[in-house]
Structure formats: C-alpha cells, structure tokens
C-alpha cells in the first residue's frame, strides 16, 4: 500500500515555530527512511499555531535534507498567485531535486478574511477564474506556452495535483486531467462516490495519463489502543478550543484530559472521532485496508497531529511497519 504524509507544521505548547518546522523536517526524514511516497506541506496564513505559511520555501529545506521521498505542496492556494510565479518556484525545486516534486493546488483561503485581503486583492474573483488559472499553470509547467517559459526548465516536470474536499473539486480534477487528492479528514462527503466520479469522468490530458487518486485521512497510531486514544485527545481538544475562538498551541495530553467539556464539546469530539483512524498498528492497518477496498484509492496521505513530535514520528513508523515493512 502506498502511504504518504501531509504536515501542517503545527505548534505545540512550549514549542517555538522554529522548533515546529524542525520537527516537520525530521518527520520528512522519518518518512524517507520508512518508505513513504510523498511528504506534502500545507499553506496557512495568520495562524499562530501553524508554522507552514510558504510551502515553496519550506520545501527547499525539506528537499535538501531528504534523499528519496517526493516533496510537494498540500496545497498552494492558487487564487492568491500568478501561475507563472508558481511554475517558476516549483521548476526551481524540480531543477534542484529532480523527479521528486509535486505541485498540489487548491482554492481555499487558508486563513482569515484579513489575511486574504493582505495577500491579494479580489480573492473571490480569482476563485471564479480558477479554471483559467489552472490552464495557465499547466502551460507553464509543461512548457507549452508560446509566449514565455518558466525558467529554469527542469529535466523532470513537477506533477500537478488538485486537492479538494467536494464533488466539485473531483469533477474539476477529472475535467482537467489532473491527479486528485481528496481530503476525507476535512470532509463530510462520501469518499467512495467522489473517487468513483473522478475516475469515471477523467479526461486524459496526454495519451499516457490516467486517473490516480489519494485519500487524505487523519490517523493516530500507538503501541496500544489506549495510548493512541490518549495521544489523539490533544488534537481533539485543540479542535474544540479553536471552535471556541482559542487559537492557541496544541495542548499536552495532561492538559487535554483536564479540559472541561460541555455536552456540545463532547458531541463534537464524538463526530471527529468518526472521521479518524485511532488505534494500535494492527487496528490501523486493518482500517486502511478496508478503506482502500471500499474507495479504490491508489494511495493514502496520512495527517497526524500530536502534542509530542516523538509520538507523531512513532505513529508514522508503526503504520509503515504494519503495512509495508
């Protein structure tokens, strides 16, 4: 089973943003050593508890410290940027790191309205232009634009991916002949229907292109089921805190256990648990195999958020060992 990593460089209590970014780099090295296919980093803006605001910059740091694993954006939020500059950034990465570079694109704001305004005028208008922006980006990445090339032109083109959480994003990826990553961990939509629709309506952009799908899932794995649920509680309480407007750092397990929950909070946690895979290595492996059989996903991209960087690294190690080693 192909496994990959999505990381947001979350900041835990007592941790600096620099330490969070360094922990992400070490996680990429763990993925490199344990056979993970890709390491993607997210783009968020004006979030004090997420340190990854510029994937194209961060990926240079990651690529220079890994050897085999593919590196990419999960995702570059294309409505903020000129496609030509995005192509230049990722062509430069592909020139440095060869056939290891992915461009994942999305259209979410990735932050507050104030951050969107600070980044770009007319964000919503650019969202409506997304089909044209993607066509323009394809032309630059594939070097088919007759007017200008995005230099340096690498010997291996970056792979283009559409990321989304809805039927609309799957239909868009299929229409444009893009590879597709469905963020099940962020969506209430039925992943089976969405991936089936993507495959059914896929239009090849080239004679040798074919549909390929990744399912993004939230996973916490530990040596025992009980330990996994304890570790996952930090993330769950962090989500509850954010729903109350508290955008602080990820709480420790002890602080999470001490957090006073309202009945509404308890229901939120119960709903979030339903969208996660939490357990020991055997349980997690069985759940991922069942999900693959159900959805037909070609690959799983795992997002794991914990208080302790060591717990996060161990979680990914346990999953790889249970499935592939």
Query: How many distinct helices?
Result: 13
- Count the E strands: 10
Average pLDDT, to the nearest integer?
96
What spatial form do the alpha-carbon principal axes imply?
globular
DSSP strand content:
15-25%
- Report how far the terminal alpha carbons are from each other: 11 Å
Could you tell me the CATH topology label. Answer: TIM Barrel
User: How many structural domains in the coordinates?
Assistant: 1
The top-level CATH class is Alpha Beta
Structure description:
GO terms for molecular function: oxidoreductase activity, acting on paired donors, with incorporation or reduction of molecular oxygen. It comes from Salinicoccus hispanicus. The protein is of the alpha/beta class and 325 residues long. The chain has a single domain (2-222, 277-323), classed as Alpha-Beta Barrel (TIM Barrel). It is built from 13 helices and ten strands. The protein has helices at residues 17-33, 55-63, 83-97, 113-119, 123-128, 130-141, 167-176, 191-201, 225-243, 253-258, 263-274, 281-295, 309-323, and strands at residues 2-7, 38-41, 70-73, 76-77, 101-106, 159-164, 179-183, 213-221, 276-279, 299-303. It has an eight-stranded parallel β-barrel with strand order 1-2-3-5-6-7-8-10, surrounded by eight helices. Helix 1 packs parallel to helix 13 (309-323) and helix 12 packs across helix 13 (309-323). The longest helix has 19 residues, at 225-243. The termini are close together.
């Amino acid at each position: 089973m192909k496994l990959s990593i999505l990381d947001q460089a979350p900041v835990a209590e007592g941790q600096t943003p620099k330490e969070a970014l360094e922990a992400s780099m070490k996680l990429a090295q763990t993925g490199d050593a344990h056979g993970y296919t890709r390491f993607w980093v997210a783009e968020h803006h004006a979030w004090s508890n997420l340190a990854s605001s510029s994937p194209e910059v961060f990926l240079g740091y990651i690529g220079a410290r890994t050897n085999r694993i593919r590196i990419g954006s999960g995702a570059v939020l294309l409505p903020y940027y000129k496609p030509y500059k995005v192509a230049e950034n990722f062509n430069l990465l592909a020139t440095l790191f060869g056939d290891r570079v992915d461009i994942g694109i999305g259209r979410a704001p990735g932050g507050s309205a104030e951050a969107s305004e600070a980044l770009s005028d007319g964000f919503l208008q650019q969202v409506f232009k997304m089909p044209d922006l993607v066509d323009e980006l394809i032309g630059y990445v594939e070097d088919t634009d007759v007017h200008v090339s995005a230099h340096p032109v690498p010997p291996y083109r970056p792979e283009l991916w559409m990321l989304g959480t809805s039927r609309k994003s799957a239909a868009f990826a299929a229409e444009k002949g893009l590879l597709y990553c469905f963020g099940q961990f962020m969506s209430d939509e039925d992943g089976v229907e969405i991936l089936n629709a993507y495959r059914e309506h896929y239009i090849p952009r080239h004679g040798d292109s074919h549909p390929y799908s990744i399912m993004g899932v939230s996973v916490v794995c530990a040596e025992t089921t009980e330990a996994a649920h304890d570790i996952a509680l930090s993330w769950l309480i962090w989500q509850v805190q954010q729903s109350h407007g508290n955008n602080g750092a990820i709480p420790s397990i002890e602080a999470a256990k001490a957090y006073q929950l309202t009945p509404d909070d308890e229901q939120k946690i119960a709903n979030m648990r339903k969208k996660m895979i939490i357990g020991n290595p055997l349980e997690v492996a069985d759940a991922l195999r069942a999900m693959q059989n159900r959805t037909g996903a070609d690959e799983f991209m795992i997002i794991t958020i914990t208080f302790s960087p060591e717990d996060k690294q161990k979680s990914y190690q346990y999953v790889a060992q249970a499935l592939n080693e």
